[in-house]
Amino acid sequence: MFKEASVPALPSALPSGPPSAPDVRGAARVVLEDPYVKSMTSETAAGVELRFPVFELAPIRSLVRLLRLRADDVFSRLALPEIEAAMDRLDSHFADLSNPEVRAVVDLVQRVDGFSRHDIERFGLGIFSPLATYDRGLRGRFVEVAFRTRRPVETVFGHLKRFGANTPFAKWREPGLLTHFVSGNVVGYSAILARIGLPVRRGGGAAQIIKLPSTSAVFPMIYLAKMAELAPLLRETMACGYWKGGDPGVEDPVLAESDAVNVLGSEATIREVGRRARDRRRRPLPPPNILAHGQKVGAAYVGRKFAEVPELRARAIEGLVCDISAFDGAACYCPKNIYVQGDHRAFAEELAEGLGRFARDVSPVNEAVRPVGRGLERVFTGSAKVLPCEGGSAFVRVSDRTEFWLPDETYRYVQVMPAGNIGSTAAVMRGARPFLQTVVAAVRDGEVVEALVSFGGAGASNIHYPGSAPLLNVYEEPHDGDFDVVKVRYPYQARFAATNFKRNADWL
Amino acid sequence: MDMRQSTAGTVSATQSVPAAASLPGSASVTGQATAASPSIRAASARDRAPALAPGFRELLRASILHQYDRFDYYRRLCTHGNLARRDLESIVTDGAYYRLPSVVSTAFKLSKGLIEDLNDLSAQGVFQVSSSTSGDPSYVLTSPDDLAAVTARYGRTFVAPGSTVGLAFAPALRILRALSRKAARVGRKAVLRMQLALEGGSRKVDEMHVTVDIDLPGTLRNRLLGRPPVIDKMPSAAVGSVIRAAEARGSDISLGGLTLLLNPYLADFRDGEFSLHGKGHVAFSGGGYSGAKGSIRGEKIDKPAFVERLSSVFGIDPALRRTNIKDVYSFTESPAQVEGYWEPDLGDFLFSPSEDCRVYIVDPETELPLRSGRGLIKVVAPGAAGCPAAANVSVLQFDTAEIVQASAGGEVESFSRIARYRAAGVSGTEGCAFKAAEIAGV
């Protein structure tokens, strides 16, 4: 398909070319290969033997050299429209849940990681749906406009706003090698990190190394395997596999060669990788550009109308239940602090019922995290402040004090509190600015932009309608306040926030 | 974060014996862990101690009923288990203490938001705080009576009878007191559990030395620059001098504290560096065998090799390891302190609950007591005066241990191989969500 798009048929520089996608339908053994990383390791999960590439010390420098050469070659021959067309086909493939091959992937991820099928379909692979059909002519345009103005910029789905000023000293520098330190096994964003290094309008294109967080994070490799079929040359610009985090034998040479490093993980991991990446004893100047994505907390704001009008309250709760439960509350976009204008106790009770029903009927709790729920059940059985949901599937804390609660467990576990107006609630959130991620907002039409300005100003990155917290549109929304695809080339100082709706008719 | 203290000392021969005869089944059963080692049978402290009023049962009855009356949280817990006040009385009368509903130790953690539910803020007392550096300590309100009892008990466990010199591999009292002052909450003073251990020990000896202190000039200089305090670690030569001085005087010396703070010193001494023999007493605390305890990091400690090295450096004869080298299992959420002496046949410490508490090893799911094997540790320990200021009479701790000996009624007489309960914190979903304990210090 890629070749049909008039791309010159480049002979692969690799002895065997990129590996093809494995057939995962009902397979007891899944082999996930990388064209550059030859060593493999096996892990068995839920009766499936998974074989993964593992980076090793000895060939790492030659691997980096080969990868850089190949990336330079590929990007010098491919035009941006051709790259975009190929990536759109890849996105369309995973967006089509009726495709038996995609259903098999959902099944494999469900078996290996234990996530509910609902979450994988709706929030995991489904993250690609709006991307696959996004107007190519508009990609990057809203970001450019937002750099020039402080006013909210209307996008296709919502609004985008810049906060803070830019440094005049930032210079555009195309990285030759971009290394990603991926964390977690939540399906979705981790796979599309590979887009960050692809060429943009100005050209460029980086060789990319993707470090898998563990051998149980299967989706990134499946995504890349499909890329090998639909965009084989682009696949050859990336090397992906596992190494033990902190292994200096592999990490030090990789960091010394990287022009940009994208780290997702705990604050400790980010600090450590950043420190070593900037270590001048290991590399010549200039230091690499480092993108840091630490662990975050989501929140929700429910305006009076959505707390009091029964039909609207039901819709808001229906959406929140989905957002809270997504990947058992382990994702940074999952709301944890729920601010309610009006009767927050009644709202909390209805939310608890909804969470229990949802876990029973739609999205059961991952068996592997049940012990977390059991632990919370033991703690809160004697407490009148916490509403346990059916079977310990979720917990709703009720507080009469408006605060920013820092959760002690990652689970379907939230705190509901009374709220004032958007401004006063944003002031509370501001106290947790470094950790704030998505804010789910159920507000009147006239308050949507105010929510963007206030919650964005408090540090939130994405202001989403209920039921869409995980659905990040990378073409018009930032991740952790940044557009990685820009920042990896142009280390600007400002940050951004965006809504994914303009009015409630967009989702109600 | 919970804190396990290791302290040294002896069991008082004057403490009470519960009405054990009324317990369901008095015969001992030997757990699987020691089926091949019949020689391992710890003489329980209860076997050795004569009765003294008020007995354990009376104190427990008063404490558990006080707890039921004072704490809505505990009443709800009882209601959840279909137990009324009179049922608690019957349970105590029958000696079936394992049936008393337990508050899980993690409920006391600050992050759980239950401080006011689990502590009687109308009562006198100060908060005992775990010496957690995770940013999520436990807060347990402790009455003056209980505070005095815990401190005195630490004195007995930390310092062996006859010891006149103490050497604590621990932070100095001024550091612990400063940290305690910072931990004050809701207008109440706080005290780190580790401070009680050191204060208790200090009161029992003529001279107490500590290995970690503040470098005052450096700290003052740093304070002016807005930098953190400078910590001064006692040099190995100074440690050696303290021990040699005691040795020269023929004094008994008690060495104790955190294994992770002691372990690096062992590398600086030769085998046979000291010849303490029966005059050397070693007692450790706080776990840390994994190589991590709060912010302290060190090498992973292999217990048999560690004890062997202790023994050879300090000149404690192998025959004395069973009496002179011990670990103490305790945690802030319970007043109990369980001492465990080195047991070579197990290659680990053998813990024997004393007369002031009852320990059960329970099934992690049903919480019913096991007769053998491994399970969660449940501790039943009344307040010193029968009116505890926190709901901590019966506590379930997320640590596991292996039963060595248990009565037919499930009361554990000895146990070993303590470890964290992994299932409590294991997650199959590794996400990007914030979890308070993971970003402590940020």
Description:
The complex is a heterodimer of chains A (508) and B (442). Chain A has helices at 60-77, 80-95, 100-113, 117-124, 129-132, 141-148, 189-192, 219-230, 232-235, 248-257, 267-277, 304-308, 310-325, 344-361, 370-380, 422-430, 448-458, 484-487, and strands spanning 29-31, 40-45, 48-53, 153-154, 159-163, 177-181, 207-212, 238-242, 260-264, 289-293, 297-302, 335-340, 386-388, 395-398, 413-418, 436-442, 462-464, 495-499. Chain A is globular and about 65 Å long. Chain A is 36% helix and 17% strand. Chain A contains 18 helices and 18 strands. In chain A, the strands form three sheets. In chain A, strands 4-5-18-17-16-11-12-15-14-13 form a ten-stranded mixed beta sheet, with helices on both faces. Chain A has a five-stranded parallel beta sheet with strand order 8-7-6-9-10, sandwiched between helices. Chain A has a three-stranded mixed beta sheet with strand order 1-3-2. Chain B has helices spanning 45-48, 56-70, 72-80, 85-94, 115-118, 144-158, 173-182, 193-202, 216-224, 236-249, 259-266, 303-314, 321-324; strands at residues 28-30, 103-104, 126-129, 139-142, 163-171, 190-192, 207-214, 231-233, 252-258, 280-285, 292-293, 296-297, 325-330, 337-343, 348-352, 358-362, 374-380, 394-407, 412-420. At the A-B interface, helix 15 of A face helix 3 and strand 2 of B.
- Overall mean pLDDT of chain A stands at 89
The oligomeric status of these chains comes to heterodimer
Q: Structural class of the secondary elements of chain A?
A: alpha/beta
Q: In this structure, how is the largest beta sheet of chain B organized?
A: 8 strands, mixed
| Total strands of chain A | 18
* Low-pLDDT segments of chain B: 1-39, 41-45, 47-53
Helix content of chain B: 25-40%
Q: Distance N terminus to C terminus of chain A?
A: 38 Å
Please provide the count of β strands of chain B.
Answer: 19
> How would you classify the helix and strand content of chain B by structural class?
alpha/beta
Secondary structure: helix percent of chain A = 25-40%
The end-to-end distance of chain B, rounded to whole angstroms, is 17 Å
Mean pLDDT of chain B, nearest integer?
85
Strand portion of chain B, in percent? 15-25%
Number of helices of chain A: 18
Q: What Rg of chain B is obtained from the alpha carbons, in whole angstroms?
A: 21 Å
Biggest β-sheet: strands ordered side by side in the sheet of chain A? 4-5-18-17-16-11-12-15-14-13
